Structures are given as structure tokens and as C-alpha cells.
Amino acid sequence: MKLSISKILAVFVSLIAYASAATAQDFKPVLLYDIGGKFDKSFNEAAYRGVERFNQETGIAFRDFEPNSETQYEQALKRFARRKADIIVAVGVGYSVAVRNAAQRFPDIKFTIIDGIVDLPNVQSITFKENEGSFLVGMIAGMTTKTGKVGFIGGMDIPLIRRFQAGYQQGVTFTNADVDFIENYVGTTPAAWNDPIKAAEMAKSQYARGVDVIFSAAGPSGLGVINAAKDDGKLAIGVDSNQNHVQPGSVLTSMLKRVDLAVYQAMQEARDGTWAPGHRILGLPEGGVDYALDEHNASLITDEMKARLDDARAKIIAGEIIVSDVAGSNAGH
Amino acid sequence: MNAAPKISGVVSAIVLPLINLVVALLLSGFVVWLIGEDPVAALGFLIEGAFGYEEAIGYTFYYATNFIFTGLAVSVAFHAGHFNIGGEGQAMLGGLGLTLAVFWLGDVSPLLAIIGAIVGAALFGAGWAYIPAVLQAKRGSHIVITTIMFNFIASALLAYLLVGPLQRPGGQMPESSDYPDGIALTKADELLELVGISFEQSPLNVSFLIALFAAFAVWFLLRRTRFGYEMRVVGQNAEAAKYAGISVPKVTVIALMLSGALAGMMGLNELLGEQLRLIGNFTLGYGFVGIAVAFMGRNHPFGIVLAAILFGAIYQGGAELGFEMSKITRDMSVVIQGLVILFAGAMPHLFKRPIDALSARFKTRGNV
User: Fold this and answer.
1) How is domain A130-256+289-318 classified at the architecture level of CATH?
2) pTM of the model as a whole
3) Parallel, antiparallel, or unpaired for β A87-91 and A63-65?
4) For A65, which residue in chain B has the nearest alpha carbon?
5) Contact residues on chain A for B323, CB-CB shorter than 8 A
């Protein structure tokens, strides 16, 4: 019995060695998702699309990992750092402290964190101006509402999500000063990202109070809001990825946060040697945020709305419209 | 032979859990095969990931440390006849007590802070078990209901504190500030370096030794002290214990508080050993897995240590499996862990009858 186990073990060790030699390549990129899962149709899936594009264009295989809990952030980072990954991209503000710890311990490894800021010589931090994108979808909500009431449902109540709300609210009032505004947050812990049932209840409650458009910045929980919109015959606004297709006709638009672009760029730069540490902000001018327009919502966005949106976009880029931000939403570690 | 033959202690303690484990692994292999991966290769990754190199061994024993604490906690209560499924909440409160002690004593002296942390973890864990214990002992409120409810309260309390007064400045997640510099339990690699052995860096730390000592202390308490005897009598037959003059409420409360203290000390490994800050849900279900560990270890401290190492290996090997095989997602590794828990922990006597019969036949033949 003992002999056979060690034999099996020996076979596997050699198998593993063979497998890794066969797929050996010079460049090893790693992508770490946030809690919520790879195919959340939202934030993490956007990151996945970025690494997929990198994979298709370069043919370079990548490794990715979905953590179960916050305590796995650091284990995953250190594990891939120890195995000499060429670039480790971690998506999600939750990774901030874990990336700091791992980057201090492995100063030779390149880390890119998306949504968080870590001030170390081997860390690139990429954040988005979600408030600018939210401003545009806020305008769409303000121009669309017939009841004069719009809603917002946030995932976890943190300054980052408050920033979505601030931009959205400003965008709504920019087009329609008399609109009533209702907001709800799913929770205060990371579990709030993964609770579509509670988010759907909140959405139904808002719709029952007369709201006809809800913007949800809640990751996978937002799918509950979109389903509630479909059930109640109202409208929802998706977030991060283009969610227009999830319930065509019930999704007014989606606030695009181009996490895919950030992931793709970080990996490309690491590959061709132009990767640099520091903080980079992706807003409207950089194409980091936008609203989604496709065949699923073409009938909901009129030409007149488009014209006003283009005008506002130009003014934001030119600095004529200042979209307010939320204090503490970009604190460094 | 008139009476039905009973299998020997060795067979029931070692052969039965092994058979359960093998069946669980076979079923897991089937699931792995169903999703289109090679089950034999998966088992290889699992073993390699758990024991194949020093860092993996470090991680395996690091996870095992959590399971020793929570497994012992379940077993101490079980010996007194109670089913403490509040290990999760008691561990959370233990982590809170530990963190408060570290922040309170951190400026005074690191050594004092660490001693304070150990005491704080045990005290808060015991305190959280005290209320359900008293409700059970004095009012007959069922301990299963109260402890599981206290898990929710603990989780909500921790979330409240970590997005409020204890949240790290500028932080967005439910986590506390970092512990002051130098306040951490010594890591295994640092410890082994002192005696001239080099060991790869891993989260394994001295709390493993504390856990082993706790296992010994539990054995000593149960088998070599008067109170331990009283506990076992209460557990076997509370009426008889009462008749013999043992104060059942007192024994119940103390046993459950000891149980809570052990669960609370889990934070030593997870927080003071590795994370160095209080994180919202650092307990991750270890408190519940402790139930399976205690059952698989047959409520004997030594068995619990062995079962904890097995579960540690499955956790670590399972995580490595997720890293290595892309089709094995995190949900898949939960399925595999669940199967092992189901067979090893929840149905320990599934194969008792066939084994009984087999060993009986074997014995008769031996006699002839």
C-alpha cells in the first residue's frame, strides 16, 4: 500500500514536471478575480474579457483564480508571486492591503491592482472615474423617467460605490431638477456583492414607491435588480459590463467601466516592457467609462438624448462640467 | 460465540475512517471525471499540493491548526453531552478579543500584547459561549438553537465594528488597522532557522504548537482530572450524575465555556499568525468543519489532531487543484470537500456493519 502510494506520487510529480515543461513559455500573466466569481456578467467578467482578448491576440496562456473569501486574496497573490509570474493583475478594491503585503514581500514581481491604490515601486494602480460614467447614465435616467422618481441600489456601502451614486445623482438633476431620488445599499460586507435576492427585493420596493428607473452598482447582486425590472415592467441600468442583453428591453443602458481595457493594457505593457508603476486614472477622456448603446436598447435612447449626452461628454472632458467626487473613495494603502 | 462480535478499537478508529475517506475520494473522482478532467491527475495535484513541498506542508499544517482548535471545541462540549455548533461565532469573538488586546497592549510590550491576545481570544470565546451555556443549564434552552443564533449575532457584531469604530482609516473593506509592528506569532520558518533547519516561508506558526498543547490539555482534563470525569459522567447520563452529587448546571456551563475558549483561540493562527489584522469573516466556516473533524477524530484529542491534518490537506490540496486545473472552479473544490465531510464526518458508521461482519468471519476462521 505504502509502496503504491509513493509510486503514484512519483508518477504524478514527473507528469506535472512534464506538463509544465511542455507548456513552458517566457511570459506568465496571472489574473485574480474578486469575490463574486468570474462569470458575474459584471465586474469580474469584464476583467475576464480583458485577459481573453490578450490571450487571443498574443496566444499567451494565462492563469486565473477566483478567491472564496478575503483571506484568500493574499494567499493567491503570494502563491503566484512565488512561482515567478511576470504580471499579477488583481481586480477589486478588496485586494488593496493584500497587494501591499505581497508586493513588499516580493519586490521583483510586478503587480497591477484595479480599483485600489497601492503606493509601492512594483505596483501599478488603476482606478476609474466612475462618477463621470455614472453622470451620463444619470442623465439618461433623468431624461427617461416619467414618474419623476429614480432609484439607486449600491452593493457594499463603501466610498467607491458612493462615488457611482454621486455622479449618477448629479447627472439626473443635470437634466431634470425636480426628480425624487431613492437609494438603498445591499449591505456593508463583501457578501453584499453576491445577494441578488435582497437586491431584487429592494428594487421591487423602490418600484412600488413610484420609481421607474434604477441604477444598480452592485456586481452580481445587480442581476436581481434587472430581473425585478423585467418582472415589474420597469427599467434598470446595468453596471461595469454591458448588461443590456441580460433582459433586453428592461435594461435602459449600462454604465461601462472598462476593466477589460485596464487588464488588457496592463498585460500588454508588461509583455512589451512599457509597464510602469504608479497611479493611472481612467475617465471619460481615456475611454475608461461610458454608457452602453447597442441593438438591445437602441429604441430606448432617442437621437435627442444622444445629442445631449454627446454635448455633456464634451463638456466634462473640457472641464466645463465638474462631476463631483466622494471623499475617501480613492484612499491609498 | 453468542453475542454479536464487536470490531476492535483499532479497526473502528483507523479502518473505518480510511474506508470513508477512500469512498469520498472515489466519488469526488467521479465528479471530476464528469466535468471532463482526469481524476487520477487531480488526485496527484491534491497530494502534491498538500504534501509535495515544504511550503505546501506549511499550508496544510496551517489549516490543520484551525481545525484542531475548532475540533477540540466541539469535542469538549460533546463529552459533556452537548452539541456546540457555535464555534464559528465563538471564533469571531475570540478574534475580536485578540485584536482588542493587541491594540490595547501593543504600545506597552510585544510580549505582553501576545500573552494578552491569547488570553483575550480565550476569554472572549468563552464569554460568547457563556450565555447559551447558562440558558441551557438554567432554562433548558436548546444549545443547538442558541449557539447557531449566536453565530449570526457575532457575525453582525463584527461587521458593525469593522465598518464603524474598528475600521482601518481610509479603508473600504470590513477590516481593522494592521497590528502594531512586531506583534505576531513566530513563523515556523523563523523558528526552525533558530535550530539551523531551513524551511520555506509559509503561514505555519507557533499556534500549531499551542494547538497541540491544547489537545494534550484536553486529553489530560478528560482522562486525568476529577472535573473531566464529572464532565464525562454528565455527558453519558445527566440523571446519574445528578444522583451522584455532581452539579450538572455547573459542569455544563464550564464545559461549554472551555469549548468556546478553544474555538476562540482559532484566531491566534489565522489573525495573529498570518493576517495581522482583524478581517470580517476570517472564520470561513472552520467552526462548522470542526464538527466533522471532531466526529472523524472520534472525539479523542489524538484522533482530532489526525483528522485536522487530513482536513488541512484537503483544504490546501483543494486550493492547489483550483490553481492547477482550470475546470475545477472554487465551487468544485467545495463539492469535493463536502463529499469528504459527508462521508468522513457525518456518516462515520456507514460501513460499520459490513466491516463488523467481515471481521467476525475473519475471527471465526482464525479460531478454527
Assistant:
1) 3-Layer(aba) Sandwich (3.40)
2) 0.84
3) unpaired
4) B323
5) 63, 65, 76, 79
